[in-house]
Each structure stands twice: as structure tokens, then as C-alpha cells.
Write a structure and sequence with these properties.
single chain; 458 residues; mainly alpha; antiport; transmembrane helix; membrane
Length: 458
């Protein structure tokens, strides 16, 4: 599959050098949500369910907005590898502009989230807390999107370590602030799930500020003058980022909204099931961050090869990235099957009366999750490869069909109509992810990944 062993090892080092810090950064970023879930689980089941529900809907909105940040990565990688420094600055600036605009436009969705949750038939005892949580959390959207743009800008330039360490620091800050605001320590009022939202706002603002300072002051990056005359619009570059970014956002939100819809369906089944679903989803999403890191590495490597017009490098980098992701997926399957109850139990207080029931339900969800690991890794890797060659509209249509045309109806059919419960809802996810993986991989390897393809000619 990978040809000459020496070439394979060279590309493996490149994938790991980019992918591991990116995976670590994504894991650290996701640990912000995980620490919220763990600490809310120790605070109370109703607050946990409210946090799970609110975070799922917030993440769906955030994911759509992050399409513009994800467009920055391949554009900067291609421009930098071909020596176009001005294009690096233009793409990143307009990615920031579009992300900030989206964050402001989306605020009303969070303010009126209670009405949305009521219409979705969620538990009455959870809705007031979830609405209060989302109203606060909405103010963290703009800084969270700024963080995404700057991380992708740095990743495309091969500067992955700084984002990793800043994000690790943010996790520790989040734990401390949660301890203060959720539980009412250090003289702060006890605010439960509202406290978790306030902590998230502070952490995202601090992270965005730290990354912006690094980008502005790091000597090797000064030549890009990223923030010089930042207020000046660049309509041509904005149009390029828009055309590449909105299909990425739609594709991302198609998958994320599938999981959010699964959360809604599990909410129809019961509060214990919703809490277990949230925990299992946190675990699977946390390890998915590793796949996402390698997918980002593939985007950068393919983008660079495209800028250098080197089809052999493009194909070899893609093959090695896929191999690494599939190896990790196999290891994850073993972990879910062998240690499911232990992993779920970490999110619950030993004194929680419903602990045994939630652990049993959550462990059964992880058994199903083990089945879709290869498909989930393959689909996100194929997305990364296609973004590297700036192919986003076709993948958007494939994602919409796979997740909403196949996955969502199958989840409803298995989980609600057939009465299989939460496990049936998760089984539908397996089907949707598998279809997406197959179609996206075929699109790359039969298109820009062919030996005779010339993706830079687009």
C-alpha cells in the first residue's frame, strides 16, 4: 500500500510530527468539555443532563461556524508552500472576519434555546437549566471561533506545539474556575451548570488572547503582519474563504447535528439514558479528537504537496495518514470493549444513586461505538484529504446524504420505531458513518488521489 519503506518512514515521521501535537491540542480542547461533564456529574444528574443537552446544541452551532476556520488551514498550507506570504495573511484575516460575524449572528439561537428545547420534547426538569446554560454559553462562541482560526493558521505553518501548550493551560484554568463557580468555592456563589458556562467564557477569552499575542509577537510570524490594518476588508479573499468554508461548515454540522439529533432522541427515552448517552458521547468524541488531529495533518501535507505540485508526495502522505488513523481506530475498539464500565464510572460520583444504572447503559453504548470506530476514522480522514485539495462541495453533499438521509432515519427506526432504545439510536449512527466513509474515500482515491490526477489545476 505504501511502497518504498524509506519513503513510508519519512512520511510517517511527517504525519506524526504534525498529527500528534494537533491530536494533543484537540484532546486538550475537548477536555474542556469533558471536565465540565465530569464536574457536573459530581454535582448532580439534572445539572449534568442540562449540560449535556446544552453542550450538544452549542457544539452543533459552533461546528457550522468553524467551517471558515477549517478553510483557513488548506489555503494557508498551499499558499505558504508556494511562497505566497500575502495570501497567507489574506486568508487568515478573512477567516477571522467571517468567524466573528457568524458568532454574533448566532447569539439569538442561544437566547431563545428554551423554546427550541421545548419543541424538541426534552425533559421538563432539564429545560430551564439547559436554557440558562446556553444563554451564557452563547457569549463564548466568538472567542471559541477565533481560537479555531488561529490554531488552524499555526498548524498550516507547522507551528503546532504552541497551540497544544496553550490549550493544556486552558484545561487547568477551566478546572479551577469550575471548582469555584459550579460548587461555590473561594467565596464564589454556588451556580451549578451556570457556573460551568461562566468558566467556559473566561477560558475561551483567555485562550484567544494568548494565541493572538503569539501570532502577533513571534518573530518568525511577523512577516505575515496578521493584525496590521485588521479592520480593512478584503472582499476577494473573503469570497474565497466563504466559498471554501461554508460547505465545510455544512458537512461538519451534518455529522455533529446527527449526534445532536441522537441526543434529542435519547432524551425522549429518559433522563438516565440521556446522562449515560452524554457520558458515552464525551468518551467517543474525546478519542475522536486523535483521528481529527491526523486528519488535520493530512490536510496540511496534501495542501503543501498541492502547492508544490507534487502528486507522488500527495498520494504517499495520504496513504500513511490513513494507515495511522486506522491503527488507532483498532486500538480504540479494544479499549471500549474491555474498559467500558470503568470509563463511564469516571464521570459519576460514587454516591450517585443512579450510578449503577447509568454505567450499565453507558457501557452498552460504548459497545456499539466500538463497531463504528473504523468508519468514523475513515470518514474524517477522507474529509481532511479532500479539504487539502480544496474539494468541499462534493463532500458536503455526501455528508448530508449519509448522515441525514441514512443515519438519522436509521437511528429513529432502530431506536424509537423498533423500540431498541438508546442502543438502537447508536446503531443508526454506525450505518450513517459507514456510508459516509465509503463514499468519501471513493471520492478521494478515484479523484485527486489518483496517480495521474493534477489537483492543483483546479
Amino acid at each position: 500500500m505504501t511502497g518504498n519503506p524509506t519513503i513510508f518512514r519519512t512520511n510517517l515521521r511527517k504525519v506524526l510530527a504534525l498529527g500528534l501535537p494537533l491530536a494533543g491540542s484537540h484532546l486538550a480542547q475537548f477536555m474542556l468539555a469533558v471536565t465540565d461533564t465530569i464536574m457536573l456529574g459530581w454535582y448532580g444528574v439534572v445539572d449534568l443532563a442540562a449540560g449535556v443537552l446544552g453542550a450538544a446544541l452549542f457544539f452543533a452551532v459552533f461546528t457550522f461556524g468553524s467551517g471558515f476556520a477549517n478553510a483557513v488551514m488548506p489555503m494557508v498550507a498551499t499558499a505558504a508552500s508556494s511562497g505566497q506570504e500575502t495570501e497567507v495573511r489574506r486568508a487568515t484575516r478573512m477567516g477571522l472576519w467571517l468567524s466573528i460575524a457568524f458568532g454574533l449572528v448566532a447569539l439569538p439561537l442561544f437566547w431563545f434555546s428554551g423554546t427550541i428545547l421545548t419543541g424538541l420534547g426534552q425533559p421538563e426538569d432539564v429545560i430551564p437549566l439547559a436554557e440558562a446554560y446556553m444563554r451564557l454559553l452563547g457569549f463564548s462562541l466568538v472567542p471559541a471561533l477565533i481560537v479555531m482560526v488561529l490554531k488552524n493558521y499555526l498548524a498550516a505553518l507547522g507551528r503546532t506545539q504552541v497551540a497544544f501548550w496553550i490549550t493544556v493551560g486552558a484545561v487547568f484554568l477551566n478546572v479551577g474556575l469550575n471548582w469555584m463557580f459550579i460548587f461555590g468555592n473561594f467565596g464564589m456563589p454556588e451556580m451549578g451548570v451556570r457556573g460551568a458556562a461562566i468558566a467556559t467564557i473566561v477560558v475561551n477569552l483567555a485562550t484567544a488572547g494568548a494565541l493572538a499575542l503569539y501570532c502577533a509577537l513571534q518573530p518568525a510570524l511577523k512577516r505575515y503582519t496578521l493584525f496590521q490594518r485588521f479592520w480593512r476588508p478584503d472582499w476577494q479573499a473573503m469570497g474565497q474563504v466563504w466559498r471554501l468554508g461554508w460547505p465545510i461548515g455544512v458537512a461538519l454540522v451534518a455529522e455533529t447535528a446527527l449526534f445532536s439529533a441522537a441526543t434529542v432522541m435519547v432524551g425522549w427515552i429518559g433522563t438516565h439514558e440521556l446522562a449515560a448517552h452524554g457520558i458515552a458521547l464525551e468518551i467517543t468524541a474525546m478519542l475522536f479528537m486523535v483521528h481529527l488531529g491526523f486528519s488535520n495533518a493530512a490536510t496540511v501535507l496534501v495542501g503543501r504537496a498541492r502547492g508544490q505540485r507534487d502528486q507522488d508526495a500527495l498520494r504517499m502522505g495520504a496513504k500513511v495518514a490513513v494507515a495511522v488513523s486506522m491503527a488507532f481506530a483498532t486500538a480504540t475498539m479494544v479499549l471500549y470493549i474491555a474498559a467500558g464500565p470503568f470509563l463511564v464510572g469516571l464521570f459519576l460520583s460514587p454516591d450517585e444513586p443512579a450510578r449503577a444504572a447509568i454505567i450499565a447503559i453507558g457501557a452498552s453504548f460504548l459497545i456499539v461505538a466500538a463497531v463504528f470506530q473504523l468508519a468514523d476514522g475513515a470518514q474524517v480522514m477522507a474529509m481532511g484529504l479532500l479539504r487539502g485539495v480544496q474539494d468541499t462541495r462534493g463532500p458536503m453533499l455526501i455528508a448530508a446524504f449519509s448522515y441525514w438521509g441514512v443515519g438519522l432515519p436509521t437511528s429513529y427506526l432502530f431506536g424509537i420505531m423498533f423500540g431498541w432504545g438508546g442502543e438502537g439510536v447508536w446503531a443508526g449512527l454506525v450505518v450513517g458513518l459507514s456510508v459516509a466513509a465509503l463514499l468519501l474515500m471513493l471520492r478521494f482515491w478515484r479523484g485527486p488521489g489518483r496517480a495521474d490526477a493534477r489537483p492543483w489545476a483546479k
